[in-house]
Amino acid sequence: MSTEIDVLVLGGAGVDTIVYAPQLPLPFADSYMVPTITTRAGQTGDFVAVAVHALGLRTHHIDMIGDDHEGDLVRALHAERGIPLTVVPLRAGTRRAVNLVAPDGRRLSLYDSSRSEAGDRLPVEMVTAFAAASRHAHVSITYPCAFALPMLRAAGVTISTDLHNWDGKEPYHEDFAYAADLVFVSSAALADPEQTMRRIVERGRARTVVATAGAEGAYLLVDGEFSHVPAVDPTAQVVDSNGAGDAFAAGFLLGWLAGEPARRCALYGAISGAYACTVAAMSVDSIDRGALLARAAELDPTAGRAAAGDGTREWR
Q1: What does the alpha-carbon distance between residue 168 and residue 72 come to, in Å, rounded to a whole number?
Q2: DSSP string of 241-274, one letter each residue
Q3: What distance in Å separates the CA atoms of residue 100 and residue 234, rounded to the nearest whole number?
Q4: Nearest-CA neighbor of 158 among 135, 140, 178?
Q5: Rg, the chain, Cα only
Q6: pLDDT tens digit string along 47-58?
Q7: Side-chain half-sphere of 298: how many Cα atoms within 13 Å?
Q8: Per-residue pLDDT tens over the stretch 75-102
């Protein structure tokens, strides 16, 4: 099938207000003086779209956003980066959050739950048409996207999703976890990452599950084999963890869509995620393919040669 899109990103568009806190957790006080408060476009779907686009993959983002100032920020971000964005009106307004960022880069996010309504949906015709033109779909766990999963499956497109800080028990995440071919999840809230990863495989479609663990690296479950992948040292000072998990997913997808081994995909993800931690939250920035492959070659010369293209894979 001829495709025009490498990665179709569904959902996850929104706006964050970034507050640099003196520490986390923040002790109760009447007020604090902080260095800066900045509002900018960029939530999980935006970060994935920016990251895969920077890695040279043909990208299209579809989501519901409001006819408001926050929506204008989302539209402007995509226009500036040259990333196609297809919008469905969101009556309650564009999703927004407040992110408190500690001096060591740790983050606490507060999401505005008022921006979602029970009837929110991505149109069937839109999802079906874009899926038919795509190699792969990365689905954010925002509410309307759950209803798009059966359409994507029917279209035959492969699916990835990021469950973020799922505890392995909350039912809301299960539709996403069990419908995807490739599942990402943070290990932060998992008492036993391997157990949860194996349950995802047993109950769902995935044969590859990745649990990211921040500075401790990541865990892989591929065709029943569980392993650990070490983290990659950032090449600059860590300032912010916003978007690091999304960047990891994008790097992993670069390798996965090219048929690379899972550990090499995880290396790409670790490099991309480490880079994201060196970028301040006010800037939605991502490593490009050249820089990622160069870093991969430094860390693993075999990976670098394969990624550069050996005549057996198609790199678009």
Answers
A1: 35
A2: -TTHHHHHHHHHHHHHHTT--HHHHHHHHHHHHH
A3: 22
A4: 135
A5: 19
A6: 999 999 999 999
A7: 10
A8: 999 999 999 999 999 999 999 999 998 8
pLDDT at 103 over 50: yes
Instruction: For the chain, give the longest Cα–Cα distance.
Output: 63
Residue appearing with tokens 């009837």: 119
Torsion over CA of 18, 22, 27 and 31, rounded to 10 degrees? -70
If you search the block for the tokens 């006819």, which residue do you land on? 67
Please give the span between the terminal C-alpha atoms of the chain, in angstroms, as a whole number: 16
- The DSSP element (H or E) to which 179 belongs, if any, is helix 174-179
Structure tokens at 46: 């935006």
* Ordered domains of the chain (ranges, CATH): 5-13+43-87+120-308 (3.40.1190.20)
CA 56/CA 316 separation, integer angstroms: 7
Element (H, E) at 65: strand 59-65
